[in-house]
UniProtKB/TrEMBL annotation:
GO molecular function ontology, one term from the record: DNA binding
Lineage, top ranks: Bacteria, Pseudomonadati, Pseudomonadota, Alphaproteobacteria, Hyphomicrobiales
Protein's name in the database: BglII/BstYI family type II restriction endonuclease
Presence of the UniProt keyword Endoplasmic reticulum in the record: no
Domain of life: Bacteria
């Protein structure tokens, strides 16, 4: 697995840079030992989870105590979401991140997804960064949380 590209939504990259976390979070996706293909999701999730755990992030954090909805990780005023599943889950991830932002629980977020080509290797109808970039741009007045989108392949 390697970093393919990043996309800056509402100055999300600057928020991660301001906290000196941009290189740290993008470096997580430089993991040549992880080969993308069918059934690689467990390896990706374990690797990412381990990196966040080592840095002291809370994992599978509830976005609201009355709901059984979580984001992959949170620390201070940042949230992170990893999406390696069905494309129908990606807009839901954006909604969860927007909720955290609007309730003043975070100031910025990062969302990591495979590229279109990587997603095709992983299975059918897997969320991909190119599509989510287009959707964030189309709904930029609805999804106002600063997001650093991380695309890996």
């Amino acid at each position: 697995m390697k970093l393919a590209f990043t996309h800056d939504h509402h100055n999300g990259a600057a928020e991660w840079q301001k906290r000196d976390m941009f290189d740290w979070i993008t470096d997580i996706f430089e993991a040549p030992a992880i080969k993308l293909g069918l059934r690689c999701t467990v390896d990706i999730r374990q690797h990412v989870s381990r990196e966040f755990q080592l840095d002291g992030w809370g994992q599978d954090v509830k976005i609201d105590q009355s709901l059984n909805l979580t984001v992959s990780a949170m620390k201070d005023d940042l949230a992170f979401q990893l999406q390696t599943g069905n494309i129908s889950r990606a807009p839901y991830d954006l909604l969860k991140l927007q909720h955290l932002f609007q309730t003043s629980k975070i100031e910025a977020a990062a969302l990591a997804l495979p590229t279109r080509d990587a997603a095709a290797k992983m299975g059918s109808n897997i969320a991909n960064a190119e599509r989510v970039c287009k959707e964030m741009t189309a709904f930029d007045r609805v999804i106002t949380v600063p997001i650093l989108l991380i695309a890996f392949e």
